[in-house]
Amino acid sequence: MEAPETDRKVVFRARGLTKVYRMGEVEVHALRGVDLDLFEGEFVVLLGPSGSGKSTLLNILGGLDAPTGGEVICQGRNLVQAGDRELTAFRRHFVGFVFQFYNLIPSLTARENVAIVTEIARDPMPPEEALALVGLAERVDHFPAQLSGGEQQRVAIARAVAKRPAVLLCDEPTGALDSKTGIVVLEVLERINRELGTTTAVITHNATIADMADRVVHFLDGHIDRIDTPAVRKSPRELSW
Amino acid sequence: MSILYRKLARELWHMRGQVLAIAVVIAGGMATLVMSLTTLDTLVDTRDTYYRDYRFADVFATLKRAPESLREPVEAIPGVQQVETRVVSHANLDIPDFPDPAVGILISLPDGRNAELNRLFLRTGRLPEPGRAGEAVVNEAFAEEHGFRPGDRIGAVINGRRQELEIVGIGLSPEYIYHVAPGDLFPDFARMGMLWMNRTQLEAAFDMDGAFNDVVLTLTRDGRSADVIQRLDALLAPFGGQGALDRSDQLSHRYLELELDQLRTMATVFPAIFLAVAAFLLNVVLTRLIHSQREQMGILKAFGYSHVDVGLHYAQMVMVIVAIGLVIGTGMGLWLGQMLSELYRDFFRFPYLEWRISTRSLAIGTLVTLAAAAGGTFAALWRAARIPPAEAMRPEPAPVFRPTLVERLGLQRLFDQPTRMILRNIERRPVKALLSATGIAFACGIMAIGTFQQGAVGYLIQVQYGQVQRDDLTVTFTEPTSRRALHELAAMHGVDHAEPFRDAGVRLSRGTAAYRTGIHGFEPESRLRRILDDELQVVTLPREGLVLNDFLSEYLDARAGDTVWVEFLEGRRERVAVPVAGVVREFTGASAYMNLDALNRLMREGTAISGVWLAVDADFRDAIVRDLKEVPRVAGVTDRLTAIQNFWDSMANIVLTFAFFSTVLAGSIAFGVVYNSARIALTERARELASLRVLGLTRGEIRYILLGELFLITLVAIPPGFLIGLGLVYLLVGTLDSDLYRVPLFLTPDVYAIAASTILVATALSAAVVARRLNRLDLVEVLKTRE
Ligand SMILES: Nc1ncnc2c1ncn2[C@@H]1O[C@H](COP(=O)(O)OP(=O)(O)OP(=O)(O)O)[C@@H](O)[C@H]1O
Ligand SMILES: [Mg+2]
């Protein structure tokens, strides 16, 4: 195993990750051997064409899915071998998710969609505070069907950050947002990253977002093509698209 | 976990239609069970209490005449607790404005007192006063038939002497709860009455001063009936004792027991079938319900809820539904059970009802339902638990495309695009379609077991009173009579045809099996009484030997060629071995038949007959009946039409009410299943259908795609549903067999028609509800959120 490049602590260490989906006779190789370290407190952006395996990797890191091969070490334990109880605790206390398709619970209001997570977290912020953070203080009692796609996505972000997770995994959090709202959301992510030291990984198709990252991981066809380390990290305010 | 509760409440409210439909399925099964067992337990309890409170005897004996002094040795028999001697006899009654002959059974009461055993329950009026002749208490059923009240008078020919009797009271006795005249299937309350009179008067009338001709007794706790009967018979033999009967052979008790057995079978088989079907349907419905929630489970798990948390959440959802169903079912069951119990109370004429809620039915119903619900829920949750959250949150993978059978056969041009979508959808998700179809088929099947009885009973009556018993009037004599009586009756004006018969009370035995019944002797060329073979074809009565009906043949395990012991319970009380000459098919009774001459020879009785069958001109029927009353020694006249009427009246009360309630419950189960299938299909496909609408399909087209599938599945499910119905009826009919009657396995077309139309109406109504929702389908909303 390689020695870490810096003295920063490694949060996730993925080695030789593969994921094969079998659908009848067709085999889809979503991941073909991915090695990646995520360091504590860093802000990583994952870029890559559609279908290149970004979501698959994030799901595996977050303990939502099991790889076909390889290992993921987190806090000294191999997630791949972890039992259901361990993975549940891991998801409950350690990671926050923002999904590509929001995945809100339609029968709960915005506040309740956040509360459903804060209720079981150790040191959460109040749901109202999390929603205020994403600019939805006025809409706490609205149901998902009464919110726009971008608003739903912001509820999803509030839901992810409300428990103050150690790691925040975001799958296209700004995909559905206009640039002004997108910047608001990114500011939230950046502030959480900065103030709470939350390790943050963001998938995006928007290359400009890469400018605010500590590192940029480029995906291609199931493996990591290259990793860039921008010299300067811009603040979201300086971005535009 | 308050948010999860809120989610639960909101979602249950959102799908309240479906919740109610599932609850109805549960309620249907539960109600059937509670209704049946509550009725049964109530009746059995009532009977037991009635027997105990009114001191129903354990042993019954009749004799010719014995001095009262014999009472002491009877009391001294070990195992005997209490003895009551009585004078019991018959009288022909003359009831004002009632032309038919009626028979009264006269039972003595100790002067001015109620009996010690088989006590009278006095509904109104009083007991006969000591020293007053001509006062009688009559039984309630008889009184109701004729509208008697205390103070009314009837005529009675007591031992040849005509007397006026005053009805002073109306009462009930545990001894005559369900008194059926020999040879009849059901009681004829109008033509047979019980009259309780002072002992002194009956002693005088029947020349029984200081004597008795009937004795009843109770046993001590450890008294053995068989031993007591043996000693009692020995004591009574010199006095013309006819063999004491244990309570289990007592007429009223036996018929009551048969009826309760019948009810017991129905009360266990019906609910067992219902509950099993309901449990299965519940399982199917819940499996699909939980399955449709897989995405939400994925979300909950993604945020750190454990399998247990998620499982509990959905288990709570199921429990709420189950609880609603159980509460509705229990309420309905108790209500129906109470109505049914009251019907039965009136039918059996119990003086009161020991209303009892069957706790075991509550326990059994709850456990079975919970088990079924837990099974369905757990299986679905287990399946859901095994999918990683990431996958659960993704929409279900689009099924692998395969051209449907229709397309492979090149028939697709016959169908338009929406129809092809229906066919493809069914073919791609065959398991789902199969589950829906199975549920609907079972719902269709249980309709049959509720509705078949009426038709089957009609068929039974058609065979019994159309093919077997074909006489218009059956005349029975008080005792075996010479053949001359036949010619007298045949000569009556309006009588077309007359045939003699001889009924002999016997005990048939073979090996360890024994059965008390009657041998009916008639002439082989008889037209008014016939016997039928397996295929219900008329067969000729053999010259010699015994013919058993199928029930008796089965019971005694005796076939043609075997020998059975015949012990006559009258006359010379011969015991002879007789070969079985054949077995005949009968839906009623447990009878044996014999050539009249052969029977007479066996009994060494010359040519005695016990009655005559008459075919009469309908115009003269009333006149003949009136004249028959004047003929000495005529004990009674049974009218075939009255017998049929009695049969229907009894059936209507007993079986058909039960069946009616069951049909209603089966209908609601059917409804719940169909509605659920429709609603779940809508939930599962709302997105797809909304997308189609967005792509430009009309409301009519998407309605057709969803509802067309529902109707197609329903139509496909109905024929197997008929088969299931037939199978369930077969199961039920097998368990309903009793010596009283066997319900034939005979399904009239209307059974199928009712089952099919219930299902179709349920489908149409469900379709209407779903169509309304489909019309209000908010395209944007559906597409925006993901359920
Ligand atoms: N459940 C599944 N079954 C079969 N194939 C799958 C499944 N999930 C993902 N795939 C395939 O795996 C590959 C990688 O998918 P993934 O979702 O990781 O891509 P992605 O990089 O996130 O793309 P996008 O930017 O479009 O979200 C794709 O080819 C996809 O079709
Ligand atoms: Mg993706």
TrEMBL record, chain A:
<dbReference type="InterPro" id="IPR027417">
    <property type="entry name" value="P-loop_NTPase"/>
</dbReference>
<dbReference type="GO" id="GO:0005524">
    <property type="term" value="F:ATP binding"/>
</dbReference>
<dbReference type="GO" id="GO:0016887">
    <property type="term" value="F:ATP hydrolysis activity"/>
</dbReference>
<feature type="domain" description="ABC transporter">
    <location>
        <begin position="12"/>
        <end position="239"/>
    </location>
</feature>
<dbReference type="InterPro" id="IPR003439">
    <property type="entry name" value="ABC_transporter-like_ATP-bd"/>
</dbReference>
<comment type="similarity">
    <text>Belongs to the ABC transporter superfamily. Macrolide exporter (TC 3.A.1.122) family.</text>
</comment>
<dbReference type="InterPro" id="IPR017911">
    <property type="entry name" value="MacB-like_ATP-bd"/>
</dbReference>
<keyword id="KW-0547">Nucleotide-binding</keyword>
<dbReference type="GO" id="GO:1902495">
    <property type="term" value="C:transmembrane transporter complex"/>
</dbReference>
<keyword id="KW-0067">ATP-binding</keyword>
<protein>
    <submittedName>
        <fullName>ABC transporter</fullName>
    </submittedName>
</protein>
<dbReference type="InterPro" id="IPR017871">
    <property type="entry name" value="ABC_transporter-like_CS"/>
</dbReference>
<dbReference type="InterPro" id="IPR003593">
    <property type="entry name" value="AAA+_ATPase"/>
</dbReference>
<keyword id="KW-0813">Transport</keyword>
<dbReference type="Pfam" id="PF00005">
    <property type="entry name" value="ABC_tran"/>
</dbReference>
<dbReference type="GO" id="GO:0022857">
    <property type="term" value="F:transmembrane transporter activity"/>
</dbReference>
